[in-house]
Here is the input.
Amino acid sequence: MGFDVSNEIDDFGDVTPLLSSFDSTYEAVEPIISKIMKKGMKPLVLGGDHSISFPVLKALKLHLTEPFVIVHFDAHPDIYENFMDNPSSHASPFARILENNMCKKLISVGVRTATEHQRQQIKKYDVTLVEAKDFPAKGCDLRGPLLRHISASTPVYISFDMDVLEPGLAPGVSHREAGGLTVRQAIDAIHCIPGVCVGADLVEFNPLRDLDGVTASVAAKLMKELAAKLLLAN
Here is the structure.
């Protein structure tokens, strides 16, 4: 976005749950987010899989006075009611977020794998879906559809799953889905999101599946763009 963010970021370290369980992870995440918010700062959380968005937003909501919109970049809707007998999995965070009325609107962008059940969930919760096939050639043109739900003063949380990108450009993800966004489209889309950014997460980078550090490099670039988006909101 044209300025140096390196001196504007505080690192609050890794989240270390006491036990290897979803409940223990949630219990470890929420106090750190609350600590960040109490300092008057904004969280930028690096995953981890997408299940972390639920505890992050649960803690964030306690410190916001206005309802917020989530702009969610992902190849998948992540809105299963219960995926493989695990309602807390990476495939279900937005079902948990929406059933708890944690946001006033969810806008999912870049989706290209919605099952029939997920489409029923999307309809049930009135999710706005911008599928990959309908994503504008220029990422900045996403602003038009977003303005239908986001004003200049609307609080916005950005949740970015690395698998929204074309896997040839970011192979280091667990669930590769062809037909995704380019890195340039994604960056331009982030730049054009209206409203006031109150937090963000960047999830689902899997270094075990990366090739020559390509995805790590892309993730680092996106992290800087998201950090700049949060700083500009100040």
